[in-house]
Amino acid sequence: MANFTTMSGFILMGFSGKPEIEILFATLFLVLYIVALVGNILIITTTSMDHSLSSPMYFFLKHLSFLDLCYISVTVPRSICNSFMHNGYISLWECILQCFAFTLCGCAEMALLTVMSYDRYVAICLPLRYEVIMDISTCAHGLLAVWVSGILAGVMHTAATFSIHFCGANIIHQFFCDVPQLLKLSCSNEYVGELGVSGFLSLVAFVCFISIGVTYMHIFSTVLRIPSAESRARAFSTCLPHLSVVILFISTSVFDFLKPHSESPTVSDFLLTVFYTVLPPALNPIIYSLRNKAMKIALKKIFERRKDFLFFLSHTH
């Protein structure tokens, strides 16, 4: 990364040049960010406090919520501040850090969703061996692999992107330091190396996607053979939330990657980016808590404890 650009920073254009539209989107972002913050913290708290949620599935769910918090916090708070202050400037080093953190969280989330699909496969297709296969060691190694893959992807992506020279206007038509938008500022074909890294990471993501697809084919094949309707419903209730998250995250990001990018992005282009950068962290807690009976019971217990505690405090004064 020796050949840094001489640019001291970039201008993030955001959604619109009109202040009133910027404020509108900033307000929407703020609402979604609060929803993501509260929802994911609730899941982390619930899975940590309730001993009935100590299985590997909830262990990985807790870390998915933590990843979601990091993922949405990388881009949204800065975008909200820029919109309210009407200032889209971001320094070079802030852009580098944002690019690294965003890639790390995105790739780590993809890896974690793959690990979670394997956990569901073992639980449903190999139930008698579940506790042996998904022991503490396996969970720890799986989580370690998730973070290592995310860090490596972040380093490779960021190093390849910011080793090129940028020239011309330092304007990024996005609400964060998006790599495809940065590559448009390249002076020559120096971005070939970055395209190679992107191709490699895309291949890895495709392998994860195929792995999840094959895993769920086995899962649904096994579930449909279960004679008890209640058992089938219980199995589906633990699988469908995870599958919903996978479809939302992968489909929107892949579609945005494959579609042709115009020189002047439209509002629809920005909204598509929102679908895989902002919505998954905000919707994941809702999907998991509403579709999962054990989570709903655990959440109810926590709120009842809080209610009893507040009632006790009010009667002691």
From TrEMBL:
PROSITE patterns linked to this entry: G_PROTEIN_RECEP_F1_1, G_PROTEIN_RECEP_F1_2
UniProt domain G-protein coupled receptors family 1 profile: residue ranges: 39-288
TM region positions: 21-45, 57-76, 88-112, 196-219, 240-258, 270-290
Protein keywords: Cell membrane, G-protein coupled receptor, Membrane, Olfaction, Receptor, Sensory transduction, Transducer, Transmembrane, Transmembrane helix
InterPro entries hit by this protein: GPCR_Rhodpsn, GPCR_Rhodpsn_7TM, Olfact_rcpt, Olfactory_GPCR
GO molecular function annotations of the record: G protein-coupled receptor activity; olfactory receptor activity
Annotated protein name in UniProt: Olfactory receptor
Gene: LOC101960549
Organism: Ictidomys tridecemlineatus (Thirteen-lined ground squirrel)
